[in-house]
Amino acid sequence: MRSGRRKDTPVGPNYKWVALSNTTLGVLIATMDASIVIISLPAIFRGIGLDPLAPGNIGYLLWMILGYLLVSAVLVVVLGRLGDMFGRVKIYNIGFLIFACASVALSLDPFRAGAGAMWLILWRVVQAFGGSMLTANSAAILTDAFPARQRGMALGINQITALAGQFLGLLAGGLLAVVDWRAVFWVSVPISITGTIWSYLSLRETSAGRPGRIDWLGNLTFAAGAGILLAGITYGIQPYGGSATGWGNPWVLGGLIGGALLLLAFCYIETHIVAEPMFNLALFKVRAFAAGNLAALLTAIARGGLQFMLIIWLQGIWLPLHGYDYEDTPLWAGIFMLPLTVGFLVAGPVSGYLSDRFGARMFSTVGLVVVALSFLGLLALPINFDYGMFAALLLLNGLGQGMFSAPNTSSIMGSVPSEYRGVASGMRSTFQNSGTALSIGVFFSLMVSGLASSLPRTLSHGLQAHGVPAGAAEQAASLPPVSTLFATFLGNNPIQHLLASNGTLGHVTAAQRAVLTGHTFFPRLVSGPFHHGLAIVFSVAAGMALVSAVASALRGGHRTDPEPEPAPADRPPAPAETPETSQTGPNGPS
User: Are 368 and 542 in contact (CB under 8 A)?
Assistant: First the structure.
């Protein structure tokens, strides 16, 4: 698809705002769809007739969530490189079109049960391909359109909208799933079609393409290595044999080792064999680029862990303890997490604007320290917390992440020459998306390990104390901890589900049945084991945030040299310098 406007067509002074509004819409819908399925999975599974707690269906559940993230993590660098070569706007426009087509296909799922789940997973992969085209090139388009003195503000709005989209997706999924599970996918259709037409008509190439050859060998080894490694991590959280997790599974170990070896081979290929590599490793010689991406990776891991643990905490324990029906907990979890999104939206644009004047290092580093403090605050809360304090800590976490994300993105994107901005944007997105995928493997494994040590015994004793026969209680307690975890994640009462399926509820008194299937029995039963796992998760997340703060502080100092105005619209702009860099290029400082 050609961009809607010829490259030699002059643009007006307001073009940069058109670029900002369109790319912000693009990343918003892409990131919302990455998370909108998470909160609506109960309705989706009911709609296609699939039992989410059946051991054989855990794989469907994981791939429904992770398929989108894995594709995004693997392909954004490739698509950013293609944007550098053939035009960022062209690749961006095609991405909007693919995203729209996949959204239509998802809403028209003609199958049920496993076949219906596979249809959704495969089209989610296609949708992620289109979304990756959007996210890989949006920051580069903005960096081309805005002068350095406004770049932090523009990227701040864009990137904070992307992060907020992850949490707005949770709220939208809860609201739409109540209407119809297909509505979760319908909502993307008009937005993506409108965005496709608008971007085709309004966006144009403002930088020269950089002709070159596609690095097929690098693309293949990177995609295979990253995909196999992340898939191994995905299956590592599923039970294997008598173990609560699958880290001892030979296939998982083979995937981890094989993926790591392929990525090592990829690094060698990019630095010694290929003349025009897709993943320009020499960019890591630029200190602001390397430090910013390391901080972004660790922060994404911590943020992903926070998102999933908060959902489980709210849906599985806190909301039922406060009288909410399990079927309603996905919606209310999204609502009660809104302070986190508010923090993003407030701090992101403000810190981006201020970082244009005072540099990224101070805001990014302080923001990450604030994030670490909020994790420690969450760690100190009791399981049945006071919501006012909880909301204040979520707001603090959102403010800290907003302070970090916008200046960090501006620093990364401004630290490279203009001809490398597409691939730099893709590399930045790869670290961020990989961090989210890694967080699921890291934090779910930590939580499952914490639950496995005490949950079966606690569950068995609690059930027997309320009249459940020993055999039935042991059978329920033998459910893999990851299944119990996903039950709370999906807004299900696993006790009612398990005891109803094996007929046990018919053998207890009415009073015992009311207790077992009520709002408080399961949450109180698992609160102790869950809090133990939560303490591990938030401690690790706080440590990652502090390490990220150190990396951010090492990005380099602030320069006050003014930058000239962008080049005229009829020719590409010259490579820009930013406050964090001084005449840096792909081979480091000159």
Answer: no
Burial of 506 (0-12, 13-18, 19+ CB in 10 A): exposed
Q: What angle do CA 293, 294, 299 make, to 5 degrees?
A: 95
Q: What is the pLDDT confidence band of residue 218, given thresholds at 50, 70 and 90?
A: confident
In 3D, which of 68, 429, 79 has the Cα closest to residue 219?
Answer: 79
Whether the CB-CB separation of 311 and 170 falls below 8 Å is answered with yes
Kindly state the greatest CA–CA separation across the chain. 81
Q: Show Cβ contacts of residue 262 under 8 Å, excluding neighbours closer than 6 positions.
A: 221, 222, 224, 225, 228, 229
Close Cβ partners of 169 (under 8 Å, ≥ 6 residues apart): 31, 32, 33, 34, 35, 36, 38, 39
Which residue's entry shows tokens 């100190």? Answer: 380
Count Cβ atoms below 10 Å from residue 112 Cβ, excluding itself: 13
CA distance readout (Å), 136 to 75, 379, 530: 9, 35, 37
- DSSP 8-state class, residue 559: -
Q: What is the dihedral of CA 400, 403, 343, 323, to 10 degrees?
A: -30
Determine the Cα–Cα distance for residues 404 and 236; give it in Å rounded to an integer.
Answer: 31
- For range 270-289, the mean pLDDT: 78
DSSP symbols for 101-156: HHHHHHHT----HHHHHHHHHHHHHHHHHHHHHHHHHHHHHHHHHS-HHHHHHHHH
Other CB atoms within 10 A of residue 560 CB: 8
- CA 353, distance to chain mean position in Å, is 25
**E strand or H helix at 160, and its extent?**
helix 148-179
CB atoms within 10 A of CB 508: 19
- Are 401 and 163 in contact by the 8 Å Cβ rule? The answer is yes
Tokens of 545: 């945030």
Tally of CA atoms within 13 A in the half-sphere of 231 that contains its CB: 15
pLDDT digits (tens, 9 = 90+) for 400-446: 988 888 788 778 877 777 667 667 777 777 787 778 777 877 777 77
* Burial of 457 (C-beta count, 10 Å sphere; 0-12/13-18/19+): exposed
Judge contact between 585 and 283, C-beta under 8 A: no
φ, ψ of residue 181 to 5 degrees: the values are -65, -30
φ/ψ of 240, rounded to 5, equals -140, 120
Cα–Cα distance for residue pair 393/15, rounded to 1 Å: 39
pLDDT of residue 369: 92
Name the pTM for this structure.
0.73
- Closest to 421 (Cα-Cα) out of 203, 186, 585: 585
Return phi, psi of residue 589, to 5°. Answer: -60, 140
Give me the count of residues in the chain: 590
Distance (Å, whole) CA 28 – CA 25: 5
Nearest to 358 by CA among 584, 578, 582, 575: 578
Structure letter (DSSP) for residue 209: -
For residue 16, give both structure tokens: 């940069």
CB atoms within 10 A of CB 321: 16
- Which residues, at least 6 apart from 168, have a Cβ–Cβ distance to it below 8 Å? 28, 32, 341
Q: Which residue has the higher pLDDT, 52 or 567?
A: 52
Residue 471's contacts (CB-CB under 8 Å, 6 or more residues apart) are: none
Q: What is the DSSP letter of 562?
A: P
User: Which residues have CB under 8 Å from 267's CB, separation 6+?
Assistant: 281
